[in-house]
Design a protein that fits this description.
mainly alpha, Rna Polymerase Sigma Factor, Chain: A, Arc Repressor Mutant, subunit A, elongated, sigma factor, transcription
Amino acid sequence: MADRELTDADLLHLMAGKDEGALRELYDRHATWIHARLSHRCADSDAVAEVLQDTFIASWDGASRFRGDGEVAAWLWGIAVRRLISRLRRRSDIRLGPALLERDAQELSAEEQVLLRLENVDVGTALARISPELRVVLQLTVIDGLSTREAAVLLGIPRGTVKSRLQRARATMREELA
């Protein structure tokens, strides 16, 4: 492996053997974007910093359990989202970030702008036309892969409301794409 750059999966394998250098490298590769995505969902910088730290501690502890059947980045993001939800459950004073608040189309994150520029322009146009309250539910459940229960906790609304908004969002998307 010395003559090629280590992959993220290689780093996890090394971390399973308690290689701290591998942890530092994985952190250097992923901490910035994970921090940005967490900050977009939670406006409390201390909470974001703690969740980021918890994410990499969990990756260190769980490196041996990574099966290699998916992207390491997605695995890390899954850990981060679960840690954020867990933190939000314990604290009611954490402020949600701009990704979870209603806002104008001009305030879309870079991530959302990319999604709106999907190869199929009709999908991007349809996403741009749905209301922010429906779009955020789609983002959390479809893009971030949260359950309706987890999305409800993160948004601070009942699970039934998440389900009904998701149903409305899907119906609206079908109409927009028809």
